[in-house]
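Lecture notes, unit on binding sites. The following record was shown on slide 14. It pairs a sequence with (R)-mevalonate.
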Amino acid sequence: MSKIKGFSKLSKTEKITWLAKHFLTSNPLDIAREFSSYMHSNAEMQKLFDGISENTLTNFYLPYGVAPNFVINGRTYVVPMVIEESSVVAAAAAGAKYWSDRGGFQAEVISTTKVGHVHFLWRGDADKLFHIFDTELKDALIAEVQHLTANMEARGGGLKSLELIDCTELEPEYFQLKATFETMDAMGANFINSVLEAFAEALTEEVKSHKAFTGAEKHVEVVMSILSNFTPECLVKAWVSCKVSELGAFPEAQLNAQQFARKFSTAVRIAKADPYRATTHNKGIFNGIDAVVLATGNDFRAIEACGHAFAARNGRYESLSECVVEGDTFTFSITVPLAVGTVGGLTKLHPLAKRSLEILGNPGAKELMMIIASVGLAQNFSAVRALVTSGIQKGHMKMHLTNILRHFGASDIEIQSATTYFADKTVSFSNVREYLQNYRANLAPEK
Ligand code: MEV
């Protein structure tokens, strides 16, 4: 394997040429042509995309779609989604439409607190440290970050609390400064990390110069200062509810409304009880959540990491959604932490993220949390509905049909014909291959 020094300093063409020469078999010129075919026609726009990351060679396309008919708290949204899996947008749209006829989604933000820590080592009398923290240090630290928090405070947010935590039972000499924040419409990662680093510096200095500390006590060893992506107090709940009889019948599975409600709620309980099922169940939820998070320029890794940690908060990995059938009322809900922003980061920089927010009516962070949670719930509803009725493959493979056809190099006419043919048949890789072979053989001129 070829190694290289200073790769990032090469021009884009040099990078592609080097890559093609050492790792690809096609002609470097062809590779360069291929990569350049995915670049933006507007050079300024391409510069913007190049600048978002490092060592950029081209752009990687993903479909950008919308799911209409999302009625959330009485307002109708069209929700932009970026996702590579073929059936996700259709399933979200189907879930949205289904519930728009039954009162729509309700949602509420439970809390919006973000959190971060200065993790540090300190050797000395912990009681003394706590006493000085409570009487002097805490106020001094808060004053030292005032220049960083002032702007956020003017917007209604800022630092909410600062705590000293003894973690010596976890690790010798280990303490934390735990800070909580309100970051309003920003996801707030940069703000939080800047404040934490300032806390770390101030803590080191304050302890060093304080006359109550002597010898080793004067030395704070900061290990790291970083926000936590676990934000169980940045939480939103969304739910749908209707009379069981209003669920309608599911003839494809010969289920009436009551039987559907029972089977559906059992499936959700299984996802609460069994981590194997819970993981797939939640993956379905994140199909919807991630797609909106991406479309609005938010950080889907942070959202996923937090969502999964939250799903395991009771000591076992569980479903994020819950279904209750009480009397004749069916209620399906999700409670999920979503630390998202509608200002800062990529949200206004990426032209399509900006457009997504416009499509959503330029929501603030709280409204976006409610939209995203509702999409996750709609996605989950459609997936579990399919699972307990017709099975997942029917709809899934129907949506995947075009991908399989393209894999076999099908023309537009062949795709059209196959779509009609498979409308009432099972789609599988081999069925599609066989269909195409027959179709092509029948078209071939007779010898
Ligand atoms: C596929 O991407 C997602 C599902 O597996 C989710 C689920 O099983 O609930 C259909």
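Take-home: The chain has four domains: 7-52, 84-110+235-390, 114-228, 395-440.
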